[in-house]
Design brief:
Chain A: Pfam families: ActD, Cytochrome_CBB3. The complex is a heterodimer of chains A (634) and B (422). Helix content of chain A is 45%, strand content 4%. Chain A is mainly alpha-helical and 634 residues long. Chain A has a 5-stranded mixed beta sheet. Chain A starts with 31 loop residues before the first strand and ends with a helix. Chain B contains 19 helices and no strands. Classes of the chains: A mainly alpha (634), B mainly alpha (422).
């Protein structure tokens, strides 16, 4: 063995017989006290060094394993071995039982899995149970509908449950290992032995702990001597002392003091105060600048928000073109301009240049003037008579029938794109008022749901372009305004596309190019025959097939059924409203705006999903509904 | 004790399968012929038309045995690429499975014939009528540059060439090392594996797309090949363990393959069961969550007409139950329990492939307007399984005849024999 530092090393031949007894039986081992233990002398000498065990050193892993078996068989329990690398079979030689760590990991994994599932169930799937159990709302989960998935759906929960399974398994493995190994261990007297570090390099060591009930110095020497260790050393704990009594006390006090700030914060956050709050940064809380809608005495009108300087217009806001910007007849048109302008109060008429205001004012003005027999409000409250037939048309005359954009194919396609994004959700891709939102609302029998208009009625077909533009821009009845979402030109593109869409359902054979007519007629005949054939086959299947073909046709630009000319073809049901178009425009106007209260049919009949079924109001053309009239006027 | 190098009788390392080949080759071939003939006869009773029903059963049984052999090739290559020491004693068995891949070229002839004869095959895209004017004609025409007959046959030729060549090459090199003992051959095999591994991954992925995914040509999944390869890995580890256990029961391999190797095969089987579940569920979850019609088509039919039961069966039987069953090391180290779970997993692998293939029959029946469509279970499938199994096993025995079951002059053999799970 090599001498290391000033440590006395046993260099006697590792050969003979009985050691430890001190008797002259030949060259013998002696249990050595490591001087290093004494080099760092404790300042507190009142406490005597304590023997904590012995450490035996070996040069060969085979010797170590044999020694381990001997110690194991002697029934010693508090001991350990130290090797530079994991030694196969050492756990058997030491009599170490199989670890329970896998069970900890398994329990951790199962806990994680259940935690993940329960957490997600509580957060999003526990509504019904919580309601039944009377749990207050603020203790319940969120119950969000996400992507139309069920409130509680296992597939969506598996990734989270999986991740938590892994996480808790890893926690189980890591912390379980630490606990089972009694780690972290800050200090061990054995570490003071100078040769102990060979256990990480080229030495093999066994350490017996004095806490073992069978331990005594002579017995340990006797036990280890036949295993031919190169050295056996006593381990003295001369370093560890009890900490001074004031340290734990001081730590406790400090800990208690540290609790005060969070406790104060918690208290203040939960206490109502009558005094105003403290403003640490007053400059930020009280700024000199004005906020919208505030009062500013500096100006004569005391408005902090300054209106535009008279006679000027902001860049890009010159919207003189009534037709393009508001869908109205140009104001120089005497029909539109004279009425509204006359109705405005004097003087103000000059300053409020917005033609939209003119139009709106005129709209209401006309209403109250022409419907002289009754005003709007009583009409909607009493549910009285319908306004005169001519009223609707008169309103419509305000709107332009021109199209202020070029009717190019590109614009139509752009319109289709926008229509399918914004409009189709309610009105349906085909414009029959059968969009997914409507279907869903019908399915769940939504009480407040107003069915979207079928865009293929004569009323809508006869609306001025400007009216449709206005409806898109500002909304109509329950339909929200899309002006802020769809830019101006696209709104006109949608109008253009809508016209094409309407044409596709209302085309006459004359609209078809000469060369194509024969083919269209042929296809129409074939389609008709096929439909008849299907109808003959089976009533139920025929209904389904008709629904399908109807949807397909709605997407086509040209519908073969247009051949029949006079049939509007939006509906294959023989609804009275569909047959003689234009004869009763006012009544048709009603039909465009069905009221769910007056006509709950769609809500009660979830099976009505085909486009045809979106004419539920067709069955009741005589609907005399105040809400309708209100909707029209508003 | 384990740290002592085990003493193994060199003669025990040179054992081969003995008279197994001589005794069983001819009977197995007969079983193969009888099975396929029976399958053809049974299929003629089917409503789907005998060629179609026969070929569906055939495709299923074909892929069951093909995935095992492909798994053998994967296993061999990965051991070489990673320079694995522990697996040397079981690597020869995987080499034999890989070397048997050539037989799947002639066995594919009925399937290829189904492509060549219009409308007789299992693939919609190979039917000119459907491509011309079928309900999905648009998509089929769109995909025609890839899914057409000549290109398909060319691709098949490439697949079989790659698989057969690499399977044979690695087997031949390994046997050569048995004779010469040249350690340099280990590096040669390493190099061949490095080249062949990505190629095999690609070819198996594309073969899975061509043979299985194109059964639903309007649908696609980018993880499809990985799911199939996960199936290859699962089935080959189960098969290797079964072969080892059977051979040791016969008295061979008793010294070379220890309980440690057995446990490792079990561990890998366990791991790849989890991997299979992971990728299979990934595919399902993404499609389920996005809920896009063009993707849900695949699972729509698998959640109706009785297939829901099969899906649930796979979830529990291919993952949850074997996961818990194979968790303990004692299960993997005991012959009877490991055997049980390997057979279980192989059965589930067959069910897995069944779910890949057969719902297409349900789909067709539904679209033909047949009502009350149920699971298309048929004895045809069983007969095809027996038939192809007979052929594949017969050629496997021929491949293995007279060859030592352990590469006994591999330089890493000592490491493998001393291998010890902590």
């Amino acid at each position: 063995m090599v001498s290391r530092g000033n440590t006395p090393i046993d260099t006697r031949p590792n050969t003979l017989s009985d050691p430890f007894t001190g008797q002259a039986k030949g060259p013998a081992y002696k249990v050595l006290s490591d001087v290093n233990n004494r080099l760092v002398a404790p300042p507190d000498r009142s406490r005597a060094p304590k023997l904590t065990g012995v450490v035996a050193e070996y040069e060969d892993v085979g010797e170590l394993l044999a020694a381990c078996e001997r110690v194991r068989d002697a029934g010693i329990t508090k001991w350990d071995s130290y090797t530079p690398y994991p030694v196969h079979g050492i756990e058997r030689a030491m009599g170490i039982k199989a670890t329970i760590l896998p069970w900890i990991v398994l329990c951790g994994g199962l806990t994680g899995c259940m935690t993940g599932l329960l957490m997600q169930w509580y957060l999003n799937g526990s509504e019904e149970v919580a309601n039944e159990a009377g749990i207050p709302t603020f203790l319940q989960g969120y119950n969000f509908l996400i992507s139309g998935k069920p409130i509680w759906s296992l597939p969506a929960n598996i990734p989270v449950a999986f991740e938590l399974t892994i996480l808790f398994s890893a926690f189980g493995a890591f912390f379980g290992m630490l606990v089972l190994n009694r780690l972290p261990k800050l200090s061990n007297p054995r570490l003071r032995l100078s040769n102990f570090r060979r256990g990480t390099d080229d030495g093999y060591l066994i350490g017996l702990d004095s806490k073992d009930p069978k331990f005594d110095l002579e017995g340990a020497a006797e036990l280890l001597s036949p295993t031919r260790p190169t050295a056996v050393r006593e381990v003295w704990d001369v370093e560890s002392r009890r900490a001074p009594a004031w340290i734990p006390t001081a730590a406790l006090i400090l800990f208690a003091l540290l609790l005060i700030p969070p406790a104060l914060i918690a208290e203040h956050r939960n206490t109502p105060w009558s005094t105003p709050r403290i403003h640490p940064v007053g400059d930020m809380d009280w700024q000199a600048s004005f906020k919208p809608q505030q009062r500013n005495p500096f100006f004569a009108d005391q408005r902090a928000m300054r209106p535009q300087v008279e006679g000027t217009i902001a860049r890009g806001e010159l919207d003189l073109d009534d037709a393009l910007y508001r869908g109205l007849e140009p104001t120089d048109n005497p029909a539109a301009a004279s009425g509204p302008a006359a109705a405005l109060p004097d003087g103000d008429g000059q300053r409020l240049a917005s033609a939209a205001l003119f139009a709106f004012a005129s709209l209401n003005q006309d209403q109250s003037e022409s419907g002289a027999n009754t005003t709007d409000a009583p009409q909607e409250q009493t549910g009285g008579e319908a306004p005169p037939a001519g009223d609707d048309e008169e309103d419509m005359s305000l709107f332009t029938r021109d199209l202020p954009i070029e009717p190019t194919l590109e614009n139509v396609q752009r319109g289709q794109l926008v229509f399918n994004i914004y409009c189709a959700a309610c009105h349906g891709v085909g414009g029959f008022g059968d969009g997914l939102v409507h279907k869903r609302a019908t399915q769940i029998k939504a009480q407040a749901w107003v069915p979207p208009s079928n865009l293929h009625t004569d009323v809508t077909r006869n609306r001025p372009n400007g009216y449709l533009y206005d409806a898109i821009t500002n909304g109509v009845r329950k339909m929200p305004a899309y002006g802020s979402q769809i830019e101006l030109k696209d709104r006109w593109n949608v109008v253009l596309y809508l016209r094409a869409l309407q044409k596709s359902q209302h085309a006459k054979i004359g609209d078809v190019p000469e060369a194509e007519r024969d083919r269209v007629r042929e296809e129409a005949r074939a389609a008709k025959e096929a439909a008849e054939q299907a109808a003959a086959d089976e009533a139920a299947r025929a209904a389904a097939a008709a629904g399908e073909s109807g949807t397909v046709e709605a997407d086509d630009a040209i519908v073969p059924r247009g051949e029949t000319g006079d049939a509007p073809t939006t509906s294959s049901t023989a609804a009275p409203s569909d047959t003689p178009s234009g004869a009763k425009p006012d009544v048709e106007g009603r039909n465009e705006d069905p009221d769910p209260v007056a006509d709950p049919a769609p809500a009660d009949e979830p099976e009505m999903e085909s486009p045809e079924s979106n004419d539920p109001e067709a069955g009741e053309p005589e609907t005399d509904d105040p809400a309708d009239a209100d909707a029209e006027t508003a | 004790m384990a740290h002592h190098a085990p003493v193994v009788d060199p003669a025990a390392l040179r054992e081969d399968i003995g008279d197994l080949a001589g005794k069983f080759r001819i009977p197995l071939l007969l079983v193969g012929v009888v099975g396929l003939v029976a399958a053809g006869l049974l299929a003629s009773l089917s409503d789907d038309g005998w060629a179609k029903r026969f070929l569906f059963g055939y495709l299923w049984a074909y892929w069951f045995f093909l995935t095992i052999s492909l798994g053998g090739l994967f296993f061999t290559m990965i051991q070489h690429v990673t320079r694995a020491g522990w697996s040397v004693t079981v690597r020869r068995l995987a080499e034999m499975l890989g070397a048997n891949l050539w037989v799947f070229a002639p066995l594919s002839l009925p399937l290829l014939a189904g492509v060549l004869f219009d409308g007789a095959g299992v693939w919609e895209w190979a039917d000119p009528v459907l491509v011309e004017s079928g309900p999905t004609a648009d998509l089929l025409q769109h995909k025609e540059p890839y899914l057409n007959k000549p290109f398909f046959l060319i691709r098949c030729a490439i697949y079989f060439a790659v698989w057969s060549f690499w399977g044979w090459k690695l087997y031949a090199l390994s046997r050569k090392q048995d004779e010469t003992g040249d350690p340099g051959l280990t590096q040669t095999m390493h190099n061949w594996s490095v080249a062949g591994l990505p190629l095999t991954f690609l070819t198996v992925t594309f073969a899975a797309i061509d043979f299985l995914m194109s059964l639903t040509p309007t649908w696609y999944s980018t993880i499809y090949g990985v799911v199939i390869i996960a199936g290859c890995a699962v089935s080959v580890h189960a098969t290797l363990a079964v072969i080892v256990l059977l051979l040791r029961k016969r008295g061979t391999l008793t010294e070379a393959v220890t309980v440690e190797h057995q446990q490792d095969l079990g561990k890998l089987l366990f791991g790849f069961i989890v991997f299979w579940a992971y990728v299979s569920f990934s595919q399902f979850l993404l499609i389920w969550y996005a809920d896009i019609p063009e993707e849900t088509e695949y699972y729509l039919v698998r959640f109706s007409h009785g297939w829901t039961f099969v899906m649930a069966m796979l979830l529990t039987g291919h993952f949850i139950i074997p996961f818990l069953g194979l968790l303990s090391r004692h299960v993997k180290r005991r012959d009877s329990t490991l055997m049980f779970w390997c057979v279980w997993v192989l059965f589930m692998h067959a069910v897995d492939l069944y779910l890949f293939i057969m719902p297409r029959l349900t789909h067709d029946a539904v679209h033909a307007g047949i009502e009350d469509v149920g699971l298309p279970l048929s004895l045809v499938d069983l007969a095809c399984f027996v038939g192809i199994g007979g052929f594949a096993c017969a050629t496997l025995l021929t491949t293995a005849a007279g060859v030592a079951l352990v590469p006994h002059r591999d330089p890493r053999l000592k490491e493998a024999l001393a291998f010890h799970n902590t």
